[in-house]
């Protein structure tokens, strides 16, 4: 089962606000979806994500899920880029365009929840293929 939730971040993202999202929103979802601790949480390595407080927090909750680290700027290993692309395209087609944050929020949500489950499923299944391709290419960008 794949959980594909979109969480709106109200504040500017820094290590404190990122940690509160991980602790208050991601953690309970992971516990619910993977009660045996066999889930993976993939974050990209934007600076706030790698921040010390977040590392410490995830060490304290080690048994609850596996934290996947990705090399920074590695879109080939970050399936979210593919999904953002779909959301952006759907929004670009709207007439009229969203004119404020509230409208942008609801348009993004609508686009996100219209992505078929199978798309998420395929992205998850493509991960081992992506990793193999990146390793083979020794970090040079691949077709993904
Ligand atoms: C992050 O931002 C919040 C509110 O925007 C602020 O209260 C907090 O001190 C900031 N944390 C760091 C580490 O800069
Ligand atoms: C956003 O724009 C819509 C349409 O112009 C308007 O009805 C709505 O009140 C606006 N919301 C905010 C929070 O400004």
Automatic annotation (TrEMBL):
Chain coiled-coil ranges: none
Domain Tc1-like transposase DDE: 43-93
Pfam families according to UniProt: DDE_3
Protein name: Tc1-like transposase DDE domain-containing protein
Native source organism of the sequence: Myotis myotis (Greater mouse-eared bat)
GO MF annotation terms: nucleic acid binding
């Amino acid at each position: 089962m794949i959980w594909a939730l979109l969480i709106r971040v109200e504040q500017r993202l820094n290590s404190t606000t990122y940690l509160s999202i991980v602790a208050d929103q991601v953690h309970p979802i992971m516990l619910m979806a993977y009660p045996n601790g066999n889930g993976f949480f993939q974050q990209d390595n934007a600076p706030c994500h790698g921040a010390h407080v977040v590392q410490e927090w995830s060490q304290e909750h080690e048994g609850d899920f596996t934290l996947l680290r990705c090399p920074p700027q590695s879109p080939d290993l970050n399936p979210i880029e593919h999904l953002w692309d779909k959301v952006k395209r759907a929004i670009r087609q709207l007439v009229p365009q969203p004119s404020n944050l509230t409208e942008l929020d609801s348009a993004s949500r609508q686009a996100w929840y219209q992505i078929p489950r199978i798309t998420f499923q395929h992205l998850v299944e493509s991960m081992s293929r992506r990793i193999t391709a990146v390793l083979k290419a020794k970090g040079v960008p691949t077709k993904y």
